[in-house]
Amino acid sequence: MEKDVFCSIIAGDIPSTRLQEDNSFVAIKDIHPKAQHHYLIIPKKHIESIDDVENSDRDLMGDMVLFAQQCAKTLNLEGYKLLVNVGEKGGQEVPHIHLHLLGGEFYR
Ligand code: AMP
């Protein structure tokens, strides 16, 4: 399987600004922010998209939401959006599942 950009970031082959990390996830700053706070919550396990999630990924998907919640707390966000693009036709550019965490002022 060819490495996607997020696998390379997780491996440390491509630099990123990391907000937080644990054994299963990393949160990085989006290089093209759409809001004052725009982070990507990325599981270290390579799953292409929400469409490829399996029953065995249930715990991981729950943990991903809790990890996003922790990131929002770290950023002191009072409110935020969690967004997922699914598939090329759903606007997904990077074929590695991730949540967008957006907060603060939104850019046009
Ligand atoms: P999506 O369209 O949901 O696949 O979102 C992919 C996001 O990854 C976009 O918002 C990009 O700006 C962001 N992105 C792509 N490459 C990098 C990178 N090297 N570091 C940080 N963010 C990136």
Automatic annotation (TrEMBL):
<feature type="domain" description="HIT">
    <location>
        <begin position="5"/>
        <end position="108"/>
    </location>
</feature>
<dbReference type="InterPro" id="IPR036265">
    <property type="entry name" value="HIT-like_sf"/>
</dbReference>
<dbReference type="InterPro" id="IPR011146">
    <property type="entry name" value="HIT-like"/>
</dbReference>
<dbReference type="GO" id="GO:0003824">
    <property type="term" value="F:catalytic activity"/>
</dbReference>
<feature type="short sequence motif" description="Histidine triad motif">
    <location>
        <begin position="96"/>
        <end position="100"/>
    </location>
</feature>
<dbReference type="InterPro" id="IPR019808">
    <property type="entry name" value="Histidine_triad_CS"/>
</dbReference>
<dbReference type="Pfam" id="PF11969">
    <property type="entry name" value="DcpS_C"/>
</dbReference>
<feature type="active site" description="Tele-AMP-histidine intermediate">
    <location>
        <position position="98"/>
    </location>
</feature>
<dbReference type="InterPro" id="IPR001310">
    <property type="entry name" value="Histidine_triad_HIT"/>
</dbReference>
<protein>
    <submittedName>
        <fullName>Histidine triad nucleotide-binding protein</fullName>
    </submittedName>
</protein>
